[in-house]
């Protein structure tokens, strides 16, 4: 029977195993296998093997403790307002989405049993039955409608309001069926609904500090900027979670975070600095490094509406001054891939591989910077440990600038408060963007004229129109062509420099099992707590 499976890899096995852990039905699993080229006659064999793998490995019990790298008093359990990885981890613990992305970046069903459309404009969402919130309330169509419509209310302050704005109609067909109408066709809707912000909350919720979701953990403690504790949801509609409780907090200092892991205080240290890898590796078999390259990047932002970024030659000069290869080799210790100044990574189907990165050229940089009149001036550059490896990147760029007579005053500011006080505000500063599943989402969040996180204040009417055109096309090749041109526009016109796509490294104790890569980022796309387990 096994010889009927072609081009099937261990990664494919892992995807199926992960789907089983997430509660996928046999029908959904068989559809997944057929899409992967597995004959129906061989499907039973694959599912049997995967089922045994899932059943044989998890161990129940224990308290999972993990540390992220950023937190603030603005931490929230309101999915619509989530903006940091710490928020995403907690939302993934307490809530569920209609869909999720598997390891290959393909949307799979979660709270939705099926999402279908004939024209990519009107979508029918069939919900799973038997799902309840932590307070015992059954999941219904009204909960889904309430959760999605919240993003359209300006008073909510949703981080994905611009993306959600395309949803113009909601109808409860029955208690388990929702009809969503879009302003224009968008074949990406099932993928969009996998974003962390689109978690489903109970109809009428106003107090989000309770974390009343349908997720694997019930909130016991939530102290913004401090910690959260979740207790295993005994009425969870899936088979998990494996651990009895989950505590999450942030340790902003990288060395302290790693030391907490090595001393046994935590089981997972999220997103460690490449400099800390050697220390972890030197500890022998007791610790493991989990690497994920999925589109995360740290970028240098120059606001086009403020000096010196309002001078085009300054932008051009800085882009030639960045040695991308050296940043990957030195700042990232080889854990990354050279970037071409646009956010769609090589892991994405729509990545424009023909768009070559700017070559490091100090002479061209000097020509443009001299023309901009900034040589001899002191230009403040804001960096922080809050933006992964930005300090090291800043030092590399500063050294290159000094060689041509440009003084970059690198100001290292604390991680605490960085995102509120400096990001999006300072004329020249670093950002750090988590992976997003589609070009439409990346461009909508970061580069359209009304984007909420428009880091360089890039505005182009042509760009905005192209995004709408690509979104509405059901022709994949046409969409790819449009997205390719948009990537060129961002690389050449925006005030953002994306030198590399970073490989995220989470360090764990060897006792932590089940951690897998995910296209939405490290820590298993921030959803690890539900799926990992602790060996005795």
From TrEMBL:
Q: What is one process in the GO biological process aspect for this record? A: peptide transport
Keyword field = Membrane, Signal, Transmembrane, Transmembrane helix, Transport
According to its UniProt entry, this protein's organism is Sinorhizobium glycinis
User: From which lineage does this chain's organism come?
Assistant: Bacteria, Pseudomonadati, Pseudomonadota, Alphaproteobacteria, Hyphomicrobiales
An example of a Gene Ontology cellular component annotation for this protein is: outer membrane-bounded periplasmic space
The answer on whether this UniProt entry bears the keyword Signal reads yes
| Ranges that cross the membrane | 29-48
Question: According to its UniProt record, where is this protein mainly located?
Answer: periplasm
Recorded superkingdom: Bacteria
Report the InterPro entries cross-referenced here.
Peptide/Ni-bd, SBP_5, SBP_5_dom, TAT_signal
Which Gene3D superfamilies does this entry report, sorted A to Z?
Dipeptide-binding Protein, Domain 1 (3.90.76.10), Dipeptide-binding Protein, Domain 3 (3.10.105.10), Periplasmic binding protein-like II (3.40.190.10)
Q: Which family does it belong to?
A: Belongs to the bacterial solute-binding protein 5 family.
Q: Example GO molecular function term?
A: peptide transmembrane transporter activity
Name-wise, this protein is ABC transporter substrate-binding protein
Solute-binding protein family domain span: 107-450
Q: Which Pfam families match?
A: SBP_bac_5 (PF00496)
Q: Where in the cell is it found?
A: Periplasm
Q: Does the keyword Signal apply?
A: yes
């Amino acid at each position: 029977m096994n010889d009927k499976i072609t081009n099937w890899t261990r990664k494919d096995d892992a995807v199926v195993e992960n789907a089983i852990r997430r509660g996928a039905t046999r029908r959904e699993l068989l559809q997944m296998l057929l899409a992967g080229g597995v004959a129906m006659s061989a499907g039973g064999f694959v599912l049997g093997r995967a089922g045994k793998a899932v059943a044989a490995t998890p161990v129940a019990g224990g308290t999972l403790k993990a540390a992220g790298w950023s937190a603030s008093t603005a931490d929230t359990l309101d999915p619509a307002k989530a903006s940091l990885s710490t928020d995403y981890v907690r939302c993934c613990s307490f809530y569920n989405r209609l869909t999720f992305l598997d390891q290959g970046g393909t949307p799979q069903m979660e709270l939705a049993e099926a999402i279908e459309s004939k024209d990519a404009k009107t979508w029918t969402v069939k919900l799973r039955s038997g799902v309840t919130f932590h307070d015992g309330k059954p999941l219904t169509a009204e909960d889904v409608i309430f959760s999605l419509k919240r993003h359209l209310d300006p008073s909510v302050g949703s981080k994905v309001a611009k993306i959600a704005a395309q949803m113009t109609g909601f109808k409860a067909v029955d208690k388990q069926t929702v009809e969503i109408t879009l302003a224009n066709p968008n074949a990406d809707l099932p993928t969009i609904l996998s974003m962390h912000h689109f978690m489903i909350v109970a109809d009428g919720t106003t107090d989000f500090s309770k974390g009343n979701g349908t997720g694997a953990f019930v909130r016991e403690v939530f102290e913004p900027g401090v910690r959260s504790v979740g207790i295993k949801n005994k009425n969870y509609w899936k088979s998990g979670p494996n651990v009895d409780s989950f505590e999450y907090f942030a340790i902003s200092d990288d060395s302290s975070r790693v030391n907490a892991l090595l001393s046994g205080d935590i089981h997972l240290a999220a997103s460690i600095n490449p400099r800390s890898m050697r220390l972890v590796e030197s500890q022998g078999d007791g610790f493991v490094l989990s690497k994920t390259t999925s589109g995360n990047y740290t970028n240098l932002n120059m606001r086009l509406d403020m000096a010196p970024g309002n001078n085009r030659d300054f932008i051009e000069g800085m882009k030639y001054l960045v040695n991308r290869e050296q940043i990957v080799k030195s700042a990232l210790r080889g854990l990354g891939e050279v970037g071409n100044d646009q956010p769609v990574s090589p892991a994405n189907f729509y990545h424009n591989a023909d768009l070559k990165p700017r070559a490091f050229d100090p002479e061209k940089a000097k020509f443009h910077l001299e023309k901009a009149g900034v040589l001899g001036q002191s230009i403040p550059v804001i960096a922080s440990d809050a933006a992964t490896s930005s300090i090291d990147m800043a030092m590399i760029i500063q050294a290159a600038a000094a060689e041509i007579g440009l003084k970059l005053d690198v100001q290292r500011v604390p991680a605490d408060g960085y995102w509120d006080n400096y990001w999006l505000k300072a004329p020249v500063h670093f950002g750090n963007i988590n992976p997003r599943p589609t070009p439409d989402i990346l461009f909508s969040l970061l580069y359209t004229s009304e984007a909420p996180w428009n880091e360089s204040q890039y505005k182009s009417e042509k760009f905005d129109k192209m995004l709408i055109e690509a979104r509405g096309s059901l022709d994949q090749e046409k969409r790819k062509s449009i997205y390719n041109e948009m990537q060129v526009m961002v690389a050449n016109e925006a005030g953002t420099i994306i030198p590399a796509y970073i490989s995220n490294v989470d360090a764990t104790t060897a006792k932590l099992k089940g951690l897998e890569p995910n296209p939405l980022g490290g820590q298993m796309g921030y959803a690890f707590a539900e799926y990992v387990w602790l060996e005795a």
